[in-house]
Amino acid sequence: MPNFEELYAKYATDVLRVCYFYLGDRQKAEDVCQDVFVRLMVNAPQLEEGREKAWLLKVALNRCRDLWRGSWTRRVVLGSPLFELIPAPDDTERSDEAEAMMTAVHALPVAFREVVLLHYYQNYGISEIARMMNLPEGTISSRLSRGRKKLETILQGGDAQ
């Protein structure tokens, strides 16, 4: 298994990105990212070769979920802007679409948001996500399908619930 420094250099950006997307707050995302790598260093789990990123993202999602469940966080995060994007002059339309998509994904119920993040933003396959989340592949496939439908509804001005 690669050493701690190698894992941090290789995966810290991915962990931070997932946390930031999930929480919508850079400082909280950095705190969770730090916590994930501290847990890696302190617990020193025996990770399967090539599965290190999956373990890190699973721990990160669990920590994000814990923070999200707190009522204070829910009130504060839901009332704040998700991202500050300053588009280049010729990228305005594409940035607006990206921001709308990010906002829509963030509006998804947690179960759908997690599989969408792992599949589309971290490029994991259904079987990999199923192993990571300890769920049947059919459940992941269903959540992904239902998540896409909910995204379409949100982007057309509907409600995710």
Secondary structure elements and their pairing?
Blueprint: H1 4-23, H2 26-43, H3 52-69, H4 71-78, H5 92-107, H6 110-121, H7 126-133, H8 137-155
Classify the beta-strand content into a percent band.
Answer: under 5%
CATH architecture of the largest domain: Orthogonal Bundle
User: Any idea what the radius of gyration is?
Assistant: 16 Å
Instruction: Give the overall shape, derived from the CA principal axes.
Output: globular
**Kindly, what is the distance between the CA atoms of the first and last residues, rounded to a whole number of angstroms?**
42 Å
Count helical runs. 8
Arithmetic mean pLDDT = 78
Strand pairing plus helix content: what structural class? mainly alpha
CATH class of the largest domain: Mainly Alpha
List the uncertain runs. Answer: 71-92
Would you tell me which CATH topology of the largest domain applies? Rna Polymerase Sigma Factor, Chain: A
How many domains comprise the coordinates? 2
Order of helices and strands: HHHHHHHH
Largest sheet: none
In which range does the helix fraction lie? over 70%
Number of strands: 0
Explained architecture:
With 161 residues, the chain is mostly helical. It has helices spanning 4-23, 26-43, 52-69, 71-78, 92-107, 110-121, 126-133, 137-155.
Provide key terms for this protein.
161 residues; mainly alpha; Rna Polymerase Sigma Factor, Chain: A; Arc Repressor Mutant, subunit A; 8 helices; 74% helix; 0% strand
Short description:
This protein has 161 residues and is mostly helical.
